[in-house]
Design a protein that fits this description.
With 187 residues, the protein is mostly beta strands. The protein contains two helices and 15 strands. It has helices at 37-42, 160-165; strands at residues 6-9, 14-17, 20-26, 48-55, 65-72, 76-77, 80-81, 96-102, 105-111, 116-121, 126-129, 133-139, 145-152, 169-174, 177-182. It is globular, with a radius of gyration of 16 Å. The structure holds D-sorbitol-6-phosphate and zinc ion (ZN). Zinc ion is lined by residues 87, 89, 96, 135, 151.
């Protein structure tokens, strides 16, 4: 039997065909993610912030892999660039690879002691995200930031720790330049 093919357009970072699942996040569902909640509430709640296209051919089994592409749109909430929610993996020891496809931005990486660093993301950049490390993509450019990813299919997502505690750094526009600023944990 001939199977439908899955196509990964490596220039556009577009994934189509069999077993591709798409999901997106709009501003209205990103409460508590950006520093300036008031500014976010004044913006269009239907404005898309990012979209993920994921190839799921095995389900969340041990030993499996997922392949995905994240498209973070250009934009800002106040002076803070559009970004993903960010997460730890539910299975903390699961690692992940990211690679830059198009656009410009940062990958924020934070360990469990809240030590945070940023890696520049650009076409061709490669990023190893070790286990026990929260990760978030930030689009500091004027076009879509498109980033490929591959991770263990049983890794899962822990969003609640980040929702409660946030990252210890934010990326904001200061005088037209992306700048990392410290963000203290809520009490
Ligand atoms: C999954 C991987 C990415 C993110 C995507 C959206 O482990 O890291 O596919 O899911 O970048 O980010 P988030 O934080 O909303 O899942
Ligand atoms: Zn991940």
């Amino acid at each position: 039997m001939l199977q439908e093919t899955t196509i990964f357009d490596s220039l556009l970072g577009k994934l189509t065909g069999e077993n591709v699942v798409r999901s997106s996040r709009v501003l209205g569902e990103l409460s508590g993610v950006f520093l300036n909640e008031e500014e976010r509430s004044l913006m269009d709640p239907e404005q898309m912030v990012y979209e993920v296209q994921m190839h799921d051919s095995c389900g969340e089994v041990e030993g499996g892999l997922f392949f995905g592409v994240s498209h973070v749109l250009p934009g800002k909430v106040g002076n803070e660039y559009f970004m993903t929610k960010g997460h730890y993996h539910q299975k903390r020891n699961c690692a992940e690879y990211y690679w830059g496809i198009s656009g410009d931005g940062f990958l924020l990486l934070m360990d469990e002691s809240r030590e945070c660093r940023a890696e520049k993301v650009f076409p061709g950049s490669l990023h190893f995200i070790a286990g026990h490390t929260a990760h978030r993509l930030v689009n500091t450019g004027e076009t879509r930031l498109v980033v490929g990813a591959c991770w263990p299919s049983d890794a899962g997502h822990d969003y609640s720790t980040i929702q409660k505690e946030g990252f210890s750094m934010r990326v904001v526009d200061q005088d037209g330049k992306p700048t990392l600023v410290p963000q203290f944990a809520p009490k």
